Amino acid sequence: MIEQNKVVSLNYTVKDDAGQVIDTSEGGDPLTYLHGHKNIIPGLEGALSGKAAGEEFDVTVQPEEAYGEYREEMVQVVPRSAFEGVESVEPGMVFTAQTQGGPLQLTVTGVEGDDITVDPNHPLAGKVLHFTGSVESVREASAEELEHGHVHGAGGHDH
Ligand SMILES: [Zn+2]
């Protein structure tokens, strides 16, 4: 049964409100994570607690339990000179900026002359997410996995 400190493998598909597939494990490896260590979004982790291998799930997660609300005030316009060394800045490009709070991913959402609009919101911020799938396996975590707070081996960290 899924509970704190278990290693869980999931087959899953996540869709947005419009039914568009955002991500899926279909055709690839299952998602493997350490339960209770914030390895996955809290809304999904909470809903999976108590489920057993072979059980199916169908979970709707609100933004505050997923990637947070979309914060319009975080969108900024920066000068093109901030992108020194980049030949052509195009909408959709993703850059990593070094900030005091650590690395931050910025998506370019607009280019107008020398004004570049960048959006630091997570691409899934503000979205309601619908997860469906099944629990493939549940196992005990090793002492080393618990110490690291993540899964090792198949589907996990390789180090
Ligand atoms: Zn590790």
From TrEMBL:
PANTHER family cross-referenced by the UniProt entry? FKBP-TYPE PEPTIDYL-PROLYL CIS-TRANS ISOMERASE SLYD
User: Which PROSITE patterns does this entry report, sorted A to Z?
Assistant: FKBP_PPIASE
Q: Which InterPro entries match?
A: PPIase_dom_sf, PPIase_FKBP_dom
GO CC, sorted alphabetically, is: cytoplasm
Q: Name one GO molecular function term.
A: peptidyl-prolyl cis-trans isomerase activity
Where it sits in the cell: the answer is: Cytoplasm
Q: Give the protein's biological function.
A: Also involved in hydrogenase metallocenter assembly, probably by participating in the nickel insertion step. This function in hydrogenase biosynthesis requires chaperone activity and the presence of the metal-binding domain, but not PPIase activity.
Q: Which family does it belong to?
A: Belongs to the FKBP-type PPIase family.
- Provide the species name: Reinekea blandensis MED297
This protein's name: Peptidyl-prolyl cis-trans isomerase
What top-level class of enzyme does the UniProt entry assign? isomerase
* UniProt catalytic activity: [protein]-peptidylproline (omega=180) = [protein]-peptidylproline (omega=0)
One Pfam family here: FKBP_C
What range(s) does the PPIase FKBP-type domain occupy? Answer: 5-82
Q: What UniProt keywords apply to this chain's record, in alphabetical order?
A: Chaperone, Cytoplasm, Isomerase, Rotamase
